[in-house]
Each structure stands twice: as C-alpha cells, then as structure tokens.
Amino acid sequence: AGSYTYNPDVLTEFTASFAALQRVTQDNNAGRLAASRRFGNWMVFGDVSGTDDQAKGSGSASSVGTFYRVPGWEGNMFLSDVTGDFFPRIGFASETDFRSVSGSVTREVEYESGPITSVEYDMSFHDNVRRDGAHYREGVNIGMDFALTNLVAFAVGADYEHFEDRHDKVVGFEFDFPRNNPYRRFGIGASFGQIEDAWYRSIE
User: Fold this and answer.
1) What is the DSSP letter of 142?
2) pLDDT at position 150
3) How far apart are CA 97 and CA 131, in angstroms?
4) Using one digit for the tens of pLDDT, what is the confidence trace for 114-129?
C-alpha cells in the first residue's frame, strides 16, 4: 500500500493512493485519485476510486463536494456514486450500490449581553437510492445548542431515518453544568422515540 500527496500551492492538493493484495483466489488491487482546491471561503474536492478483485470483479466509487465557512456559518454538500462491486480488501467500504446526496448547515450566534452567550443551530440530511433507482435510505437531523452565562449548556434535537421499510424517529435533550469543565461536571441526557417499530428510551 502507498500514498503520495502533492501541493503545488497552499490552496491546492492532489493525492494518489493504492493498495494491492496477493492471495490465492483473492487477488485485489485498489486505487484512488483525489483533488481539492480552496477559493476564498469555499473548498471543493473530488475523488475517484477503483477496485479489481479476483472473486468479485471490478467496481468503482466517486464523490464530489464543497465546503463553505465564514464566522457564524458553516455548510457542506456531497454527491456520491458507489457500484455494488466496489470492494477494497485492504481498505473499508461500509456501503455499496448506491447514489447519494447529503449536506449540512450550521449557524452560530453569539450574544454580548443577556443570559445567553451563544446559540448554535444545525441541520443535516442525506438521500440515498440504489443504483437501479430502488429506495435505500434517507434521513434528516435538526438540533439546537444553548450556552448560558451561568455556565449551563442545554441541547435539544430530533432525528428521522427511513431505512428500507423502517421509519425511525428519535428526539432528545442534554443538560451540562458547568460547561467546558473537563474535571468536574454534571450532566443528564435522554432520548425517546421509535426504532425498528419498537419503543426506544435512553437515559444517561
């Protein structure tokens, strides 16, 4: 296995990687090319990978995406395409045979007066379909985090996931005091909802 990265300047990066396995009836070769470039507050990237396996045949995976970041705002968007035969034996491919679009946005607001020091809002989503057009999974997550001047931190959130024929729904909250203290802190959190058509509860 090996990897080489080239930076022609501080804004641009190119990477080439490979992994090769020789084993009886299981020879496998995998390669990846990736590139990224920054444009002010934006960063764009793309990569393509390919595998050739003695038992499973040839497959590919590719993705493109962009990041955006300024004070108070952060967001990203990704497009991915992975064939069902993509199989790096030296590597990791948690999901195959899908096309997807996903993204997230985060907004942070800071206050100079009042009981609240900052509020952070975040939302993320993903929509994955099988490459033949069949449904696979999609979901959305929303959340809010509050930081108070009395060192209390409070967060609420909700998550929905439609995976094949399942509809999972969970809501939860967290409370911490004093926030950001690594040595002495009290916290409580709870989540409730429905997972795999069954009542779900978690309390910490």
Assistant:
1) E
2) 87
3) 6
4) 899 999 999 999 999 9
